[in-house]
Amino acid sequence: MELLEDIRLVAGDTNFMRLMGLSQSPVLCFVIDTTGSMRNEIDEAKRVSFEIIDRKRGTGQEPSGYILVPFNDPDFGPIVMTSNADIFKGKINSLTADGGGDTPEMALSGLQLALTAAPPFSEIFLFTDAPAKDAHLKNTIIALIESTKSQVTFMLTGFAAGRRRRRTSQGVAPRVMGRSAVQLYQDLAEASGGQAIQVTKSELSLATSVIVDSSASAVVTVFQAARNPGRPDHFTFTVDGSLNNVTAYITGDSPLTFSLTSSTGVSQTSSQSSGPLAFVTTAGNLRRLSLNTDNETGLWQLSVSSSNPYLVKVTGQSSVDFIYNLVEEHEGAHGDFSVKEGRPLSGGNTSFLITVTGSETVKVTEVTLFDSSGPTEVKGSLQSLGSSDFLVTFSGIPAGEFVLILKGEASSSTSRSTSSSFQRQASTQIKTSSISVTAEANNTNIEPGTTISIPFSVAATTDGVITDSATETFTVRVSNDRSYTSTSPSSVTTVAGSGGKANGTVTLTAPSSAASGTDVTLTIEAENAAATDINYVVLRFSVSAKVTDVNRPVCQVVNTSTCASTSLLCASSQWEFIANFTDGINGTGIESVTIRQGNGTLNMSTVVEAGGENITLVTYTASCCSPIVELTAVDSVGNVGTCVGQARVLTTPPPTTMTPVTTTAVQTTSTGGYTLNISTILWLSVVFSVLLK
Fold first, then answer.
1. What share of the chain is helix, strand, coil (3-state, %, to 5)?
2. Taking every annotated instance into account, which residue ranges of this chain make up the domain Hemicentin/VWA7 galactose-binding (predicted)?
């Protein structure tokens, strides 16, 4: 408790809540190509972000944080992370479209920075009109998407191949994005549960409504499925009483038609932009259906007809949702679990720890892994762990790409006595693998200028069990998001009869200039010889300089002034609290002093004593109506000291004044030959209160 309280004092309440996962709204995260042809896209990113900030500032839906990553070629970053909307506005407003010429850009390197910086379950928006120069990072990006469970939506404005290239108003020709380049972005979007939206530059403002939709609080995924290659299909999804603002998205090239049917049998086709069930807007390959559910709970159907690849996604706002982690159970009396990195093993037993929100109104009935391309559905064994936690175990998961679907009964948002079936779907795909990759670092801290070693093991498996009957070579790829120097073997080979595991070592070196507190995400991937299977492990480290200052700042009270003991006079008088904060001769120095309790003003100055010790002189002034102050001092390495002051109570009132009866007063009270004015009565009340105490 003391450790958490110190962290809270250093970070502040807002950041502490974010650290503990208590933020009620998502972050706003943009990854933006800043080359010469991207002026329109940068302007649109500014417009939509400013709209979200200005509309939601001061409300419960204000983004909990802001992340911005610019990229071009050969540069990407630096990343901007802040919880201050005005700082984010200033940074995005300072972006300019400049340079370019050679089409590919460092899109995936910029995306890698965003994925490792954003909280889990975030939605990231990437703007570009060019292919990715760093396409070799595709598997690393997918590993980070699966690890963080974040969604990535691509706003693609590159002209399709074959179109005439016209110069923009800035004299820079828009880039051509070929089919393979678009396919890379579509693969990443599908893996994450996001979308790859292709529009012209003039259509972009219509497509960014997706960003506004996702920035709302409590957005849940009801249903999502992709068809590649495209084919006509019918998709059903459940609308429950807790859902609001239900929206369906269909992304896919034309020709594409669809029809929507409600739970009561009412239908609307794609030829109707405004019908009985939805208002439809179209921009490029995106169709956005804003549904008018009118309390029509039950099973709805969306039918799509196209020979081109397409994606269907249905979202809404609801308190009913779930988060999940792949876990492994530890033996022992406590029944502990630890998060398991990487993909579940094909044919083996796999467990997920699921936490359901809105648990007071929810009854979970079923959790399944669903592969819509099969279609294959695997039902899990559901075990309640109390409260809103469930352990779901799947036996013998086949090879494939799955999504996690949770079903149950939810009470209506307007009536707890009325319940309806509900369905929620995890956005991120869950892929199985026959390769086991494990790694364990002895220390997750790296000192600047030092190197750490991370041993790892790779093995082939059958039905979730490591095999020891064949020799197999695996390609090894290692990447980190800070571009720190790293070494690793290019491949490892298992030897039959030696336990089935191939071992290797990765080294990671933090430069001497690395700032303490910098986080580093390391991804180790292993791929089979046929390049048909891959697994990974993601490790996170912190750069931490050696700390020699372990002492808290010390407070010495210099002076505390007085206030009258009656609250009737507090507004007209002030008190002052003066204190010295020191961090010792060998300390790192006081970095900040803040008011934790109190409504006054704080002034600080630093003086140096003869012995060389810095003293931070603090003067706090407040109304006597706020007679208590608590100050928090933090030194440069995060040690926390506190100082509490309270105004002294004036216990000796000035002498009272008595006047003869003949003296005139505006307000008087007669007391047997003397008249007391009102101020005298107030001072007498002070005396009586002191005597009573």
1. 20, 45, 40
2. 220-319
How far is Cα 261 from Cα 265, in angstroms, rounded to an integer?
6
pLDDT computed for residue 24 by the predictor: 60
List the structure tokens of 291: 């549904």
**Cα distances (angstroms) measured from residue 249 to each of 137, 272, 475:** 28, 15, 38
pLDDT at 432 (0 to 100): 95
Q: Take residue 571 and report the two structure tokens written for it.
A: 């507004």
Cα Dmax for the chain: 118
In 330-398, DSSP assigns E strands to 337-339, 350-357, 362-371, 376-379, 381-384, 389-394
- Size (the chain), residues: 693
Give the 3-state secondary structure of 427-482.
CCCEECECEEEEECCCCCEECCCCEEEEEEEEEEEECCEECCCCCEEEEEEEEECC
pLDDT of residue 660: 43
Q: What is the DSSP string of 58-78?
A: TSTTS-S-EEEEEE-SS-B--
Pairing of strands 310-317, 219-227: antiparallel
- Taking only the tens place, the pLDDT of each residue in 533-563 is 999 999 999 999 888 888 899 999 999 998 8
Q: What confidence score (pLDDT) does residue 3 get?
A: 86
- Whether residue 255 has a cis bond before it, omega within 30° of 0: yes
Q: Tell me how far apart the alpha carbons of residues 249 and 313 are, in angstroms, rounded to a whole number.
A: 5
- Coil, strand or helix: which one is 678? helix
Read off the tokens for 575: 């008190």
State the DSSP code for 132: B
> H/E element holding 234?
strand 233-239
pLDDT computed for residue 668 by the predictor: 35
Q: Cα(203)–Cα(154) distance, rounded to whole angstroms?
A: 14
Position 685 scores a pLDDT of: 47
CA distance 11 to 23: 14
Cα–Cα distance between 91 and 615 in angstroms, integer?
36
Distance CA(605)–CA(366), nearest Å, equals 63
Distance, CA of 132 to CA of 53 (rounded, Å):
30
Cis link prior to 74 (omega < 30° from 0)? yes
Residues 615, 609: contact at Cβ < 8 Å? yes
628-635 and 640-646 as β-strands: parallel, antiparallel, unpaired? antiparallel
| Cα–Cα distance measured from residue 693 to residue 684, given in angstroms and rounded to the nearest whole number | 14
What does DSSP assign to residue 361?
Answer: G
Predicted TM-score (pTM) of this structure: 0.82
Residues of the chain where predicted confidence (pLDDT) is lower than 50: 160-170, 415-417, 657-693
Pairing of strands 176-177, 159-160: parallel
For residue 333, what pLDDT is reported?
57
- The strand order across the sheet containing 381-384 reads 337-339, 321-329, 350-357, 389-394, 381-384
Q: Give me 542's structure tokens.
A: 């912190």
Contacts by 456-459, CB closer than 8 A, 24 or more apart = 456/503, 456/504, 456/505, 456/506, 456/524, 456/537, 457/501, 457/502, 457/503, 457/504, 458/492, 458/494, 458/501, 458/502, 458/504, 458/526, 459/435, 459/494, 459/500, 459/501, 459/502
Other beta carbons within 10 Å of 629: 25
Give the count of beta carbons closer than 10 Å to the beta carbon of residue 278. 23
pLDDT for position 74? 87
For residue 419, the model assigns a pLDDT of 67
Residue 408 forms beta bridges with which residues?
A: 364, 422
SS3 of 104, please?
A: coil
Distance CA 13, CA 557 (A): 26
Q: Which amino acid is at 684?
A: L
CA distance linking residue 537 with residue 546, whole number of Å? 28
Residues 6+ away with beta carbon under 8 Å from 686: 564, 565, 566, 650, 653
